[in-house]
Amino acid sequence: MYAPNHQPLIQLAQDVINCNRCPRLRRYCEAVSLKKRRAFQDEPYWGKPVPSLGDPDAALFIIGLAPAAHGGNRTGRVFTGDDSGNFLANALHKAGFANQPTSTRRHDGLSLKKAYITALIHCAPPKNKPQPIEITRCRPFLIQELEWLKQVKAVLVLGQLAFTGYLETIKEIKMVSIQPRPKFAHGASYDLDPTLPRLFASYHPSRQNTQTRRLTGPMFHSVFQSIIKYLDGV
């Protein structure tokens, strides 16, 4: 996934995979991998914490909530193997950040250019609802990524929880709260601090949001167009 000269990210990915800080999440992911969904009965499940994905020279840093029980927890790759993964991959492809519009399995050929995808937590939570302590336990991974990815100029958070989690992460890194505190809204963007990347917000591309059309393809693509204009200095 990463070139040998990006050893810190290689080691971080392995640290994520080996993490056992949250017993509740580990039990849940393992149980899901044993029970499986009927459509995937003949497939092996990953069933472990899911590492991040992307270009170590990324200009765009994307933060989701968590792997899906039958998406990332099944395939072993973030935003892969479910409708959310394909929705995101399609937007990334249209914006020029991905080489293909689908994200179906770990070795499907997907490659990101100038983009990096991570999550607040790296284990699938029951009912997609992580506990606050679980987000806190996983935060050191996010902090390390933000510190090691030196070319990031824009951060895209997917959903309210990711938005709040990112602000809490910045508070921990900077040792100070961002004031006035930004408010989450789809399509919103903020310059938090001269030393920080510009923050962009979108509804999460969950199946519930896309099927109810709370988030449509054009709505999602418009956020990426804003990001592109910002990165290009337009």
Could you characterize what this model shows?
This protein is α/β, with parallel strands linked by helices and 234 residues long. The chain has a single domain, classed as Uracil-DNA Glycosylase, subunit E (3-Layer(aba) Sandwich). It contains eight helices and six strands. Strands 1-3-2-4-6-5 form a six-stranded mixed beta sheet. The longest helix is centred in the middle third of the chain and has 17 residues, at 132-148. The two termini are 32 Å apart. The model has no long low-confidence stretch (mean pLDDT 95).
Give the arrangement of secondary structure elements:
Layout: H1 7-17, H2 23-35, E1 53-54, E2 60-64, H3 72-75, H4 83-94, E3 115-119, H5 132-148, E4 154-158, H6 160-174, E5 189-190, E6 198-202, H7 207-211, H8 217-231
Parallel strand pairs: 2-3, 2-4, 4-6
Antiparallel strand pairs: 1-3, 5-6
Question: What is the structure about, briefly put?
Answer:
With 234 residues, the chain is α/β, with parallel strands linked by helices. The chain has eight helices and six strands. It has one domain: Uracil-DNA Glycosylase, subunit E, CATH 3.40.470.
CATH-level-2 architecture: 3-Layer(aba) Sandwich
Please identify which CATH superfamily we are dealing with: Uracil-DNA glycosylase-like domain
Q: What is the number of beta strands?
A: 6
What portion of residues belong to β-strands?
A: 5-15%
Spell the H/E element sequence: HHEEHHEHEHEEHH
Biggest sheet layout: 6 strands, mixed
The CATH class turns out to be Alpha Beta
